[in-house]
């Protein structure tokens, strides 16, 4: 499973309520699908799964609002 | 009781901005009509005066329609966070023998065992639209139970603080006297209605004086917050230190991109407002940030910086009109200035809670003689300013959310791999405190990051996102007193 797929599965299983599917380009934060505490969980998930630490404020500050942008951020940090 | 809906009928009551950026505007007349439809609908559903109706939806205009509609028929408004998981909802609903949960389709799994009404489907819209738009409240009086707000208890069981309808007068008075709200004030309260602030000063207080309430939840996104202040020409902003600390992380130049000249006053509530945040506010907004203090139990603001006297950095201000506050020692004698002791409020006051639902013994334990003992430690200086020091109990305050360690431990202990857990609050620069869990695993279970993630998700999804432990440490033992109580200090 690649990073985008893993993040999507994690978000749909744990963070996002009331949606069966999302695309890699869907807005997560601006749309309200993922709140600030949800971002904290995503940070832990990515750290523990990929071994790459991206802080919650780095996601917010970079306006990494989609899975595509978050994975870009991961790749930069790597 | 709801004269303001008629008095200000043509005035804008709410501007709602959805998370997707869609804007909707409602006048006081619109609110009157919508809440009357809700009142008629609830009666049709068999809801009577005194019944407890839970509102379990995202912050939206419907929150206002239901808050007012529920009160119009004399039922009891019980708001809870839409981020709550099924365990948190169940415990509260059962505790006060709720009658109905107003909710959304995305949350229906969490309420399926209880009577509920989903409001974002065609059936509801059809039914709501067909209701009569008039409802004349009758047989209401100030002593009627009107609002129940749940707050975390030290033993884990949430307590339902019961408030009477007469508390609304106090919301109105403090909205005028402390927050300086008047008809037409462009006002933004960032607190969720499930918080006492979001109900007293996000709904009833500002509506009762004819203010224009912005309903928007930009989270902690800095540009959206500043854009919102600018676009809606917010003049009075009631917010919380966590959000201000989030703004503080930004480069100062970001503030120059926005015209915030409409902003006249910033108020803060929910956590201690440090001198650092206060000084940052003066530097970047050119305004002092006025700290205020109150609790779920007090119902309305008790101590505040009102703008009528100089602000002292780090102080939560002075008692508001009609409120007598003091610092008491362990024998409940009034302490001298400078001495740290129990912050207490002289009873009664207009918005004072009148019980914990079904737990009168606990309610009575909060009083000594004619003092309400707040559970906060504080001190007072020689000019009558009060300073918060700490909580007296184990309650964790994360981003303004009060959490019982016991409630989190109960969820953690339900995991098949967990033998025992202990939860504490640890200092956090951004959130004030975060949840840390110490876990003893059952024999032959090995610690892993996967298990940490599972435990975090268990708490998040069954209790609430803000209860999820940000740090988990696997340990061999947990320190306890001789009687078996966890030592959290």
Notes on the protein architecture:
The complex is a heterodimer of chains A (78) and B (489). With 78 residues, chain A is an all-alpha fold. In chain A, 58% of the residues lie in helices and 0% in strands. In chain A, α1 crosses α2. Chain A is globular, with a radius of gyration of 11 Å. Chain B has 489 residues and is an alpha/beta fold. Chain B has 2 domains: 377 residues, Rossmann fold, CATH 3.40.50; 79 residues, 2-Layer Sandwich (GMP Synthetase, Chain A, domain 3), CATH 3.30.300. In chain B, the strands form 6 sheets. A 9-stranded mixed beta sheet of chain B has the order 2-1-10-9-11-12-13-14-15. The longest helix of chain B is centred in the N-terminal third of the chain and has 17 residues. The model of chain B has no long low-confidence stretch (mean pLDDT 93). At the A-B interface, α2 and α3 of A face α14 of B.
Helix fraction of chain B?
Answer: 25-40%
Give the overall form of chain B: globular
Structural category of chain B:
alpha/beta
Major β-sheet strand ordering of chain B: 2-1-10-9-11-12-13-14-15
User: Which protein chains are joined by the largest interface, and how many residues does each one contribute?
Assistant: A-B, 20 and 31 residues
CATH topology of the largest domain in chain B: Rossmann fold
Q: What is the number of independent domains of chain B?
A: 2
Helical residue percent of chain A?
Answer: 55-70%
Strand content of chain A: under 5%
